[in-house]
Amino acid sequence: MSALNDKAVDNGRIARRFAALKAEGRAGLVTFITAGDPDLETCRAVLHGLPAAGADLIELGLPFSDPMADGPAIQAASLRALHAGTTARKTLDLVRGFRATDADTPIILMGYYNPIHAYGVDRFLADAIEAGVDGLIVVDLPPEEDEELCIPALKAGVNFIRLATPTTDEKRLPAVLQNTSGFVYYVSIAGITGTASADNAAVGAAVDRLKSRTDLPVAVGFGIKTPEQAANIARVADAAVVGSAIVTRLADGLDADGKARPGLAEDVLGFVRELAGGVRGARA
Amino acid sequence: MTRPNTFRSGPDERGHFGIYGGRFVAETLMPLILEVEKAYREARADPAFEGAIREQLKQYVGRPNPLYYAERLTEKLGGAKIYFKREELNHTGAHKINNCIGQILLARRMGKKRIIAETGAGQHGVATATVCALFDMPCVIYMGETDIARQQPNVFRMKLLGAEVVPVTSGARTLKDAMNEALRDWVTNVADTYYLIGTAAGPHPYPAMVRDFQSVIGDEVRVQMQELEGRLPDSLVACVGGGSNAIGLFHPFLDDPSVQMVAVEAAGHGIDKGPLAHAASITGGRPGVLHGNRTYLLQDEDGQILEGHSISAGLDYPGVGPEHSWLHDIGRVEYVSATDQETLDAFQLCARTEGIIPALESAHALAEIVKRAPKLPKDHLMVLCLSGRGDKDIFSVAQHLGVKL
């Protein structure tokens, strides 16, 4: 039952990007950074440099005070961003600024529901489309709560990317895949972001299982920390997602007062280049 | 708003009380939530489960506790006839154990091997550690570092009972952060772990389940008041943080129109002193989504959760159970608030007139009856839920009164 996905009139950046990756015969690299971390200026520099560094899709974290599915690295990033004054509105401004320089790289906002709820769902969707957002990943909205945001998003033309996890069994999978659009994000471990890493064989089997049930691309994330791990995932999935490792690299570039040291953005982008190298060389 | 035929039929099958409640959790947890819901539904239909709970409540907790006529306080206030429902006489000194007995029996039924819980003041942590000791199950309690510092006696009690107390250093290091951390543990240990939530909040089925386990409070009051006065009470007063003692007292009476209900939130330094000065989610917050449910929350314009303040560590949670949000909106329960100072005054009044040192949480409800009772006729039967004893609070009360212990 994917009638609604077909109806979603998104601008097609996500679909075009995955089609291009398929044509190139390689997997994609999805990079996560938190909007406004460690401050809006530095974040903007990193964001704008990501495509050239090899990011194929960008996940931009919408900061939230209580990120209960995230590990320490992204929790800290969220708090840094909030302390720097980041709001949902400023997050959309960042996207708008990026879109003025890059018309093709998909941007997916990732976060929790309450900041969107507070903004107002309809107003948020309208502003997100206007800013150039292509998709949403909202951690605390399972299929049981589709009426809240998923269905309005699909109707408005914003992809709603669902997480599938090791606890998503056969019985539940159809519910999870229904109303999912853009791609499916397979969370490779039962756990929080940035902690344990999954076993490659298990990830491969899980991706195959998803692929047998959906035509959508499958991206895999959680626990991917090195170019080698990213390459391993790139061999079995359509994209590898790296978040905590990038955010940790960024945190390493802060001084004792939490301010960005000179060269921080370049260092983070250098790490993204290494990850991209791993992903791009994986199937060579 | 149209008045429903009954106020007691909620939640619906998706866990909604009106627009509140729901199941706002990560996909990893969703199958677990559904498993708890199914297990609870089956347990409720099994008379053996009900029997086991009743046996534990009688033999171990010491129920029924008295519905006590507070004669001196009644005389002092000169109005309504005041009764205390003595939850503070339960084993472990508060109503929290009622829920813990129910949930640990459910966890055992489900074959779970490990219990996790969050705690703020430490009362739920102590009650959880207690039932885990009783049933020989490993127990991990998440507690904010800030709360650990101000509730040392309870931390030691939990350790004596064999629990591992994990300090939470994320966020503001209080109850909401402890709940985040417990959810993170659960998401990581999905196979064998049961999350024993301490209040009538969180994702469905927790708000309904905790309410059911706490409804023994109101059920007993109903029978006891019938014995003592031959009729129903006229009003019920209870404090609300997450709201489990209040919903437990109120729920059995929701369909008795003559019974008035008043829930008292923590006004801290005063609700008019700004969003960080109080912990009154309903009186001073607005609806949002946190910890698995839609409910009234303390939050800023951008939907970021704010850290509430209350003299009572058990009430400074930035949310409230979803059923309370609904009962507020439809007007069945009146939500008011008491400040730190009013609470301290009521705390001392209760100690001196009744010889009972109440928990600071319960003293919020006492502060409301001090305001309300004098204006009511002498035949007005008022029930206060004395949800916990105040031994744990003597250090912070001493500090507020400028006494060095």
Describe the fold and architecture.
- The complex is a heterodimer of chains A (about 280) and B (about 400).
- Chain A has helices at about 5, 15-25, 40-55, 70-85, 90-100, 115-120, 120-130, 150-155, 175, 200-210, 225-235, 245-250, 265-280, and strands spanning about 30-35, 55-60, 105-110, 135-140, 160, 165, 185, 220, 240.
- Chain A has about 280 residues and is an alpha/beta fold.
- Chain A has one domain: Aldolase class I (TIM Barrel, Alpha-Beta Barrel), CATH 3.20.20.
- Chain A is globular and about 50 Å long.
- Chain B folds into two domains: about 15-55 and about 95-210, Rossmann fold (3-Layer(aba) Sandwich); about 65-95 and about 215-400, 3-Layer(aba) Sandwich (Rossmann fold), CATH 3.40.50.1100.
- Chain B has 16 helices and 14 strands.
- In chain B, helix 11 links the parallel strand 9 and strand 10.
- Chains A and B meet through helix 4, helix 6 and strand 6 of A and strand 2, helix 1, helix 8 and strand 11 of B.
- Chain B: One of its GO terms (molecular function) is tryptophan synthase activity.
Profile the largest sheet of chain B.
6 strands, mixed
Give the tally of β-strands of chain B.
Answer: 14
What is the structural class of chain B?
alpha/beta
SSE string of chain A, helix = H, strand = E?
HHEHEHHEHHEHEEHEHEHEHH
Write the layout of secondary structure elements.
The complex is a heterodimer of chains A (284) and B (405).
Chain A: H1 3-7, H2 13-24, E1 28-34, H3 40-53, E2 57-61, H4 72-83, H5 88-99, E3 107-111, H6 113-119, H7 121-131, E4 135-138, H8 150-156, E5 159-160, E6 163-164, H9 173-177, E7 184-187, H10 200-211, E8 218-221, H11 227-236, E9 239-242, H12 244-252, H13 264-281
Parallel strand pairs in A: 1-2, 1-9, 2-3, 3-4, 4-5, 6-7, 7-8, 8-9
Helix pairs in contact in A: 3-5, 3-13, 5-7, 11-13, 12-13
Chain B: E1 16-17, E2 20-24, H1 30-44, H2 47-61, E3 67-69, H3 71-77, E4 81-85, H4 96-109, E5 114-119, H5 123-134, E6 139-144, H6 145-150, H7 152-160, E7 164-168, H8 175-188, E8 193-195, H9 206-214, H10 216-229, E9 235-239, H11 244-250, E10 260-268, H12 281-284, E11 286-290, E12 292-297, H13 322-329, E13 334-339, H14 340-354, H15 360-372, E14 381-385, H16 394-400
Parallel strand pairs in B: 4-14, 5-6, 5-8, 6-7, 9-10, 9-14, 10-13
Antiparallel strand pairs in B: 1-2, 2-12, 3-4, 11-12
Helix pairs in contact in B: 2-4, 3-14, 4-5, 4-9, 5-7, 9-11, 10-11, 14-15
Pathway (chain B): Amino-acid biosynthesis; L-tryptophan biosynthesis; L-tryptophan from chorismate: step 5/5
EC number (chain B): 4.2.1.20
Domain Tryptophan synthase beta chain-like PALP (chain B): 62-388
